[in-house]
Design brief:
Blueprint: H1 9-16, E1 35-36, E2 45-48, E3 51-55, E4 60-62, E5 68-70, E6 75-79, E7 83-86, H2 92-102, E8 108-111, E9 118-123, H3 144-158, E10 162-164, H4 167-175, H5 191-194, H6 214-217, E11 249-255, E12 279-282, E13 299-301, E14 310-312, E15 314-317
Parallel strand pairs: 11-14
Antiparallel strand pairs: 1-2, 2-7, 3-6, 4-5, 7-15, 8-9, 10-15, 11-12, 12-13
């Protein structure tokens, strides 16, 4: 395999010794905000409390093809019990452990820059961002199937119900109890304190010049990162989750439909009865305009799309 760590020989060596061994038996706190790991190299999880929220908004976002993307209709959703979510996005180090352990043949060919076509030889270990990948950065260039494969492997090796977040769980966890436009309130100009977005640093990336209105779509603030950032560099939300605003888009379990249906309203995933044309993707990224970082904005893309801005976050059921 082409690990593509030009200056990361030591890091590669660390990846190669990963193993999935259970931690010594410890009581698991189910209180809101409880943090745990199920194995030494498992992603860190945090307990999200049960509760109610209104999913979606009345807003419609204009897309590149002039389509108006709806974010509703607004519907009430109830989580009858707590669940766990990844405190951070899944990292390169965590994904490497899976590849090494299984020999999984992850997608080789990833869309980069402003293009729409996958570039051969660009993959999760060599994502074409312009810098060497680091173990604490979120994994990218994984399609929905690659993300799903990781969750199934982790569930099998730990014997615990790991999975992908549903779209409702993602929005609920990202809002963290807020009813404002943003998890921290209504002031858009605070976004650089909370996530890695397309901002003044991002304008220094030569790829930003591809868009004719790059400056107009960049945040007025500066988060300090021109491209991808290591996980956990910004303020967490009220539930203790990091990077639900920006850094990388996050695949969700659901098949995405243009409008929300009446069901389900229990927080479970919405699935198609036949072929699913597009999967839900949330969060925005380091190359995404500010308005699409709102927790209600709904990305939707084909399951086989690997993009250098797309990663994922885990969920786990709590018994």
């Amino acid at each position: 395999m082409n690990w593509a760590y030009q200056s990361g020989t030591a890091l590669t060596a660390v990846f190669m010794i990963f193993s999935i061994e259970p931690l010594s038996s410890q009581p698991l706190s189910l209180s809101s905000g409880g943090i745990f790991r199920d194995c030494a190299d498992c992603p860190e999880m945090i307990v999200i409390p049960g509760g109610n929220f209104l999913m979606g908004s009345d807003r419609k976002e204009q897309m590149r093809d002039k389509e108006l993307r709806p974010e509703g209709p607004i519907r009430p959703v109830t989580f009858a019990k707590p669940f766990a979510a990844g405190r951070f996005e899944v990292t390169n180090a965590e994904y490497a452990a899976f590849v090494v352990a299984t020999g999984y043949n992850a997608t080789n060919g990833c869309v980069t820059s402003g293009g729409r076509y996958a570039v051969d030889g660009v993959n999760w270990s060599n994502p074409g961002i312009g810098t060497d990948v680091a173990g604490d950065e979120p994994v990218v260039c994984v399609d929905w199937t690659d993300a799903k494969a990781y969750t199934l492997w982790l569930a099998g090796h730990t014997g615990l119900p790991y999975r992908m977040l549903t779209e409702a769980e993602w929005e609920y966890a990202a809002k963290a109890g807020s009813t404002a436009v943003w998890p921290w309130g209504s002031d858009e100009n605070q976004i650089c304190e909370h996530g890695n977005v397309f901002d003044q640093s991002g304008l220094g990336d030569p790829r930003s010049k591809i868009g004719t209105n790059a400056a107009a779509t960049a945040a007025a603030c500066d988060d300090g990162f021109q491209t991808i950032a290591p996980v956990g560099q910004f303020k967490p939300n009220a539930f203790g989750l990091y990077d639900t605003i920006g850094n990388v888009w996050e695949w969700a379990e659901d098949c995405s439909f243009m409008l929300y249906s009446d069901e389900p309203v229990d927080g479970s995933a919405h699935q198609a009865s036949g072929v699913c044309e597009k999967r839900a993707v949330r969060s925005g990224s380091w190359r995404t305009r500010v308005s699409r970082h709102r927790p209600t904005f709904r990305g939707r893309d084909p399951a086989d799309l690997a993009y250098f801005m797309f990663g994922f976050r885990l969920a786990r059921d709590l018994n």
